[in-house]
UniProtKB/TrEMBL annotation:
<dbReference type="InterPro" id="IPR051781">
    <property type="entry name" value="Metallo-dep_Hydrolase"/>
</dbReference>
<dbReference type="InterPro" id="IPR006680">
    <property type="entry name" value="Amidohydro-rel"/>
</dbReference>
<dbReference type="InterPro" id="IPR011059">
    <property type="entry name" value="Metal-dep_hydrolase_composite"/>
</dbReference>
<dbReference type="InterPro" id="IPR032466">
    <property type="entry name" value="Metal_Hydrolase"/>
</dbReference>
<protein>
    <submittedName>
        <fullName>Imidazolonepropionase</fullName>
    </submittedName>
</protein>
<feature type="domain" description="Amidohydrolase-related">
    <location>
        <begin position="53"/>
        <end position="390"/>
    </location>
</feature>
<dbReference type="Pfam" id="PF01979">
    <property type="entry name" value="Amidohydro_1"/>
</dbReference>
<dbReference type="GO" id="GO:0016810">
    <property type="term" value="F:hydrolase activity, acting on carbon-nitrogen (but not peptide) bonds"/>
</dbReference>
<dbReference type="InterPro" id="IPR057744">
    <property type="entry name" value="OTAase-like"/>
</dbReference>
């Protein structure tokens, strides 16, 4: 199939503004031609955009498609069948919001990815981490103090989304196993976290030797390591060990941001998740000790953005929303838009996201040879980032790989 998009304002994030007079020809799953002049095609179906904005599909670099409970420990009562059924709805709703690509930061496996690619489940193209890896007693360890060990993998959603490894050899083996299972990247927990019961935020998790083992294995397999980290100490340790992206990073300081910039490490802030948890997580069972840690990291969100901007750290878009909080996925646009130019926020969810998933020139841009992941927006997002809110009501067209997920024109 081929489609010719006409009568539009083209917003390619490589530019600073939308430009009128362009036409875009899609053939198969890719963009064939982009021109400021009329494009001739005898076979293409014409899509009249009515002067609306045409832009690339959005990229969320930190989601958890399988984390269907806000209080993650409740995943213990979720069998794999129910977990996957819930995930199917979550994936479709992400695509409904205009996210044509997501990077799952722990949980989604090759079966989920294959189901989407085969068209069995509507959803974004997936870059998966499989099970995240953490040490005993750390952010990944949700075992109760009365447990003597984790249950089997078949009946407990909690076990399926994370694993525990101690020592360089165990970490090396765990990383190899995730890549054997099809991981596009390996996820490590290297500091304390909010949604975990026992570990202080400032705790350092995994030694230099353990982190290095995972990095070596990922690089040897043609993959890379992303790390959950909050404090300057945890971030610096991970960066010096060769990780490629830092997730969250709320407590980063100026020297650490400069180190990240020097090493070319990406930051993926998730400020919307802390905002949403403060307002809503208690009603979904999150205990007070976790909410107190959430309040602590929430204080530093805007400072994180400022430190990274000043240092020149590239920041991708990430949401990290658990369970019922998922409907706030586009809220990160609003938060970042308060302190960043709209074009920079959009680039975080397009061009920079494409770099993170190593698809430069293929995703996050509108140019010949790129995948035909396209949105038509009722209005100009550069003037109103709120157009991405409300579950995609302002997106009359959502196209992924040359096929319409939605066409209301």
């Amino acid at each position: 199939m081929s489609f010719l998009f006409k009568n539009l304002n083209l917003l390619d994030p490589r530019w600073k503004e939308a430009r009128g007079g362009y036409e875009v020809l899609v053939e198969g799953d890719t963009i064939k031609e982009v021109s400021p002049k009329a494009i001739k095609s005898k076979t293409a179906t014409v899509i009249d955009c009515g002067k609306r904005t045409l832009m690339p599909g959005l990229i969320d670099c930190h989601v958890h498609t399988h984390h269907s409970e806000v209080y993650i420990n409740r995943m213990e009562a979720v069998p794999l069948t129910l977990m996957m059924a819930r995930s199917a709805g979550r994936l479709k709703r992400m695509l409904d919001r205009g996210f044509t690509t997501v990077r799952d930061a722990g949980g989604a496996d090759w079966g989920t990815k294959t189901a989407v690619e085969a068209g069995l489940i509507p959803g974004p193209r997936l870059f998966i981490s499989c099970r995240s890896i953490g040490p005993t007693g750390g952010h990944n360890d949700r075992n109760r103090r009365t447990d003597i060990g984790p249950p089997c993998l078949c009946c407990n959603g909690m076990v399926f989304i994370r694993c525990i490894a101690d020592g360089p050899d165990e970490v090396r083996k765990a990383a190899r196993e995730q890549m054997r299972q099809g991981a596009d990247q390996v996820k490590l927990m290297v500091s304390g976290g909010v949604a975990s019961p026992y570990d202080p935020l400032e705790s350092l998790q995994f030694t230099v030797e353990e982190i290095t083992a995972a990095v070596e294995e990922a690089q040897a397999f043609g993959r890379y390591v992303l790390t959950h980290a909050y404090t300057p100490e945890a971030i610096s340790r991970a960066v010096n060990c060769g990780v490629r992206t830092i997730e969250h990073g709320n407590l980063v300081d100026a020297p650490t941001a400069r180190l990240m910039a020097k090493k070319g490490v990406y930051m993926i802030p998730n400020l919307v998740t802390y905002d949403a948890m403060k307002r809503r997580a208690k009603e979904f069972g999150m205990p007070n000790e976790m909410l107190e840690k959430n309040d602590e990291v929430l204080k530093y969100g805007y400072a994180e953005l400022e430190h990274c901007r000043k240092a020149g750290v590239k920041m991708a878009y990430g949401s990290d929303l658990l369970g019922a909080l998922e409907n706030e996925q586009t809220g990160e646009f609003r938060i970042r838009g308060e302190v960043m130019p709209a074009i920079d926020v959009i680039r975080s969810a397009t061009l920079i996201g494409a770099e993170v998933v190593r698809q430069e020139g293929k995703l996050g841009t509108i140019q010949p040879g790129a995948y035909a992941d396209l949105l038509v927006v009722d209005g100009d997002p550069l003037k109103d980032l709120g157009l991405f809110q409300d579950g995609g009501v302002n997106l009359p067209v959502i196209m992924k790989a040359g096929k319409f997920h939605k066409n209301a024109l």
